[in-house]
User: Which sequence fits this backbone?
């Protein structure tokens, strides 16, 4: 499959956003305002500072599927979801979904057990690598296929298409960053992409994509973007993962993530080195 040349910082940016945001997920606005300095991984119960969560792991499943060029079928993608979880179990998954993943040996079992009626943000959060695909039509089609496995709802699918297209727009240089909202309004209609998101970000796909877009449009450096994405409060790891991943696709963005965050990112078998070389 022909794919666009990628930034080696794309997955790394997603992982840093995810790991940083994981320290603030659904914390109080007071805690976020006080500690969101963009310079340290905050400790939170159940999570190891500097370790990424389900957002990056499922992004890796999609990334590997896109890069390997296998038939992009529900069965194959479900296999990847099961495979990446079992090779490297980690926290952050919704409890019900994690239970199902744990109990499955392959994608067929996963497809049998899932009831994909959610419009939450699980499909959107793993969609940045879809931007690598060669055309808008392919991004939208593949986003629909992958979203439908877990989130077979209009909102779940549209949220995945929006995130994939945000990355695609940047990687393919389809316009200026400032034109991105208008592009989404054309290709993923029904959501007010030009209206800035305000306030806590719920576990809702289209809201998460909108918040990530708002942050992406408001900044031009990754360090500023990281703080801006988390400052919304709510589902901070998903918003930061998507926003940071998309920022790595745009020439307008200065890739200036603090060394302390890059060096502090986990570096096990699927950590920093893996993310910059696959
Ligand atoms: Mg997460």
Assistant:
């Amino acid at each position: 499959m022909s794919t666009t040349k990628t930034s080696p910082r794309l997955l790394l940016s997603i992982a840093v956003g995810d790991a940083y945001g994981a320290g603030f997920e659904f914390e109080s606005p007071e805690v976020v305002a006080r500690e969101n300095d963009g310079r340290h991984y905050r400790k939170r119960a159940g999570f190891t500072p500097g370790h990424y969560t389900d957002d990056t792991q499922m992004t890796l499943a999609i990334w590997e599927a896109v890069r390997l060029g296998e038939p992009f079928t529900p069965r194959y993608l479900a296999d990847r979801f099961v495979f990446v979880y079992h090779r490297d179990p980690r926290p952050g998954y919704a409890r019900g979904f994690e239970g199902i993943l744990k109990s499955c040996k392959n994608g067929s079992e996963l497809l049998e057990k899932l009831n994909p009626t959610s419009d939450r943000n699980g499909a959107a959060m793993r969609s940045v690598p879809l931007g690598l695909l060669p055309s808008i039509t392919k991004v939208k089609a593949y986003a629909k296929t992958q979203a439908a496995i877990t989130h077979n709802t209009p909102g779940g699918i549209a949220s995945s298409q929006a995130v994939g297209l945000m990355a695609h727009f940047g990687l393919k240089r389809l316009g200026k960053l400032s034109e991105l909202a208008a592009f989404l309004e054309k290709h993923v209609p029904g959501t007010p992409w030009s209206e800035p998101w305000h306030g806590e970000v719920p576990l809702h796909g289209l809201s998460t994509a909108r918040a990530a877009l708002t942050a992406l449009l408001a900044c031009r450096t990754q360090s500023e973007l990281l703080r801006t994405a988390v400052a919304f409060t709510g589902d901070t790891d998903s918003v930061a993962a998507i926003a940071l991943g998309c920022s790595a696709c745009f020439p307008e963005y200065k890739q200036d993530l603090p060394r302390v965050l890059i060096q502090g990112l986990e570096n096990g078998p699927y950590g920093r080195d893996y993310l910059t070389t696959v």
